Amino acid sequence: MAAAALLSAETKERGLRVRVPLWAATDEPLTADRLTARVDGKPVEILELRNPSEDLMILLVLDMVSDLNEIELARKAMLSAIQEIPPNVYIGVLRAQEGLRVLVDPTTDREAVAEAIQTFPISGTPGLLETVETAARLADAILAKANVRLAVFYVTDSNIYRYREDFSNPVINYSDSQDLSRRFPEGLVRNRISKLNAALSGALAPLFVVHLEYETDRLNEAYQNGLMQLTSTTGGNSSFCRSNAEIGPAIEATFKSILSHYSLDLLVDAKKGDNITVTLESPNNNLSYRNRFHIGK
Question: Full-prediction pTM beyond 0.70?
Fold first, then answer.
C-alpha cells in the first residue's frame, strides 16, 4: 500500500507516480499549467491533474451498530446525497463489521446503492480500526488500475468500548501508584492508532470519517483524536456529530468535499522507505492538500 503501487510502464524507468488529493479555495478551475510542484524543495514533473468534473469512485464503508435513531438519520442523509451526485461517480458500499465485506461493487446504479444502504444490517461490533487499513489497500489497488479520483468514506458510530478488543488498558498493579497503565489509560488506543497511521502514511486515497456520536470520556476522546489523525495523514477529513441535528449536514458536507477534490499525479524520484514532503503553488489560489507521504513497498 504505497506510492510504488502506482508505477506505470511509461514512468517506471524515471521514478514513482505519487497521487496528491487537493482542493482549491476559489471556484476558478485549477489547471496543470497554473500549478507548480516541488518535492523536498526540488521541482518535479506534473503527470496529470484530474479535476472535480472527472470520474470519481467512492468506497462508502458503513460501520453503524448502536443508536437506531442516529443510524436512520444517517441513512436518510446518505440516500439524499447520492441522488444529487453526478452520473460519472461510482459508489461501492462496504460493511466494516466482522471484517471488510463488499455489499455493492462500485457502480453508477443509484438504486443498487440505495438498497444496500437501506438494508444494511445493524449488528455486531465496530469495525473501523480493524478494517481501515484493508480499505486503504483496496483503494490503492483500484488506483493502480483505474484512471479515476478515489476516496474512502466511513460512516460510523463506533465507541471504543464496543470493540471486540479491550482498549481500556486496565491497571496492572493496583499497589503501584506509578503504574503506567494507571497514568495513561488510553495507551492501548494510542498504540493502535500509531500503527495504523504508519500504515496509512503510504496510502494514496484520502480517508474521510463522519462519526455519528461524539463522546467526551477520556478513552473515546483519545480514539476520536486518533481518527482525526488518520484522516489528516491521508489528506481527508473527519466530522464528529455532537447532536442528531449535525448528522445530516456532516454527511452532506463530506460528500461535497469528496466531489470537489482534484487528484494530482507527480513524478517523484524516491525509493522504498523514503518520506517526502510535497509543496504545491498556484497564482491567486490558496490550495489545501496532503503534503507528506511515506514510500512503502
Answer: yes
